[in-house]
Specification:
Blueprint lengths: L2 H16 L4 E5 L3 H10 L8 E6 L3 E4 L2 H8 L3 H4 L4 H11 L4 E6 L2 H4 L8 H17 L3 E6 L1
Parallel strand pairs: 1-5, 2-4, 4-5
Antiparallel strand pairs: 2-3
Helix pairs in contact: 5-7
Length: 144
């Protein structure tokens, strides 16, 4: 990923945070570096809690306040690999200014996703919109 592209991603995230956009998708060749840059950027990080989720290992915190979000979950919930349940657990525990990075979240929305999971995930995402917006939190799909 070029420096120009990275700066573009940060500018996009800064605009999204200012507009209180609750759901954002980012395409990047280096998800770990992109997440790190967003967390470290003063205009993207207003003291929020940052956590990440993927379908192989579940939740993990990215910054110390992200651990507070995870403290409200059981170990089974943290390790959960069902994307719809992951969104539900995050919403129940996120608080103000929380950010959830969902690795490959776009694949749960695509038509090729599991027919048993995709509709529930899409509905949970739709249900999350107003809740996220009201507490200045957001979900970021990070895809490569």
């Amino acid at each position: 990923m070029t420096t120009t592209r990275k700066n573009h991603v940060l500018l996009t995230m800064q605009r999204a945070r200012r507009a209180s956009a609750p759901i954002v998708a980012i395409s990047t060749a280096d998800p770990a570096d992109t997440m790190r840059r967003i967390v470290e950027d003063e205009d993207c990080n207003d003291g929020g809690s940052f956590v990440k989720w993927n379908c192989a290992s579940g939740f993990d915190n990215i910054n110390p306040s992200g651990e507070e979000v995870l403290n409200g979950m059981t170990e089974q919930q943290k390790a959960g690999t069902n994307p719809a349940k992951a969104l539900s657990f995050f919403l129940a525990n996120c608080g103000e200014n929380a950010v959830l990075f969902v690795h490959q979240g776009n694949r749960w929305v695509d038509s090729g996703a599991s027919p048993n999971v995709a509709p529930v995930f899409i509905q949970e995402l739709w249900n999350a919109r107003d809740r996220l917006k009201s507490c200045s939190s957001m979900i970021i799909f990070v895809r490569c």
